[in-house]
Amino acid sequence: MTAKLFESALGITDPWSVASVEFDEGAKTLTILIDFKVGSRFAVSGHDGLHGVHDTVAKTYRHLNFFQHECHLQVRTPRVKLPNGSVRLVEPDFAGRLNGFTLLFEAFILMLSGQMPFAAVSRLVGESPHKVQAVCEKYVEMACGLADHSDVTALAIDETSRARGHSYVTLAADAVARRVLFVTEGRDAQTIKELASYLEDHGCPPENIIQTSIDMSPAFISGVTQHLPNARITFDKFHIIGHASTAVDKMRRIEQKTDKSLKGMRWTLLKDTAKLKPEAAADLAALIAKMTVKRTARAWSYKEQLREILDRKQINVVRTMLDHWCTCVMRSKVEPMKDVAKMIRSHIEGIVAWAQTRQTNGFLEAINGLFQASKRRARGFTRITTIKTVIFLIAGKLDFHAINPHAGQPTEIHQSQSGSLEI
Questions:
Q1: Most buried among 3, 146, 167, 199, by the most CB within 10 A?
Q2: Are the CB atoms for 355 and 315 separated by under 8 Å?
Q3: Which residues contact 282 (CB under 8 A, 6 or more apart)?
């Protein structure tokens, strides 16, 4: 009765069966012995027909806990002799992708690793962090290898810090499906070349990419122009407004040295006016009223004008208004904002493209934030393989179900690796 109960619970079918069940109360472990019927023949991948047993080896697999006790499946595993004389080990259907785990246990590790650091998962499941990480790395590697990107036409590309100093990784994501496709070290033009090669290996010729959203990195611009020849570059509105906001703050800092009334107004000038508290809104209105004598007020006004221009959708209107805006700024005495005007003039095509494509890197910035939160919680990641694994667990939307029937299907970006943001 007990053997039949465990066979049903474990999903074990003919020719496999539960031979016995042993519970060690002192060690708090349950060991289930699994055997096969005498005379059974087994199929081997890549070889036709069924083959007789040559000999057996004992293998142990860690399974999901039995209540609070560790559960191990001890399997008498057959080795079969093939017609060509070679001997092959037959893995049972429940064997995982890594030696020593069942598919269900590996699926459980994957689910937990999408929500917390590897060290926390290891404490919960009672395995070493290295084994937990090895499971995740294996599944990410296999899922990436099976990925089909033939339908990708628009990319969002950005970089994020991997360690202190000038150490970065580049991320490329499908701008439509909002999933990470590619991660590599560096942030130069070579990374775009590697991206193009990776896409081609996964069914997406570089010529298929017709839109890219990037920051104003000369290396990225050069790489996209050279290796993604049909891609239209878009610099999204939020990068531009970010530069303008920085210019406003620079102007405030300069003017604050002689005008102490500007002290403490940093966030009042940088926040969206609709989100200001009544007191802050009153302070801002008082500053704007002195626009003729306050360069910080004029800098803020230029930033808001730029925001309004970029909200428009007529590309020719946006181009004309930006040209006029740059002319006004260059004639003013708001020196920090002149750098923004020069930047806009030198990247005008990618900026006006925003009016049509509305393609943004905002979701990729959110992914970067989740990764940075994971990195802080884990006290940093030293290997690029670990970084890739964490990023793909966070935002790769990988189809692990194709590798392990017990693993989840691709889902939307969720809270993961201790991040707090859901997308």
A1: 199
A2: yes
A3: none
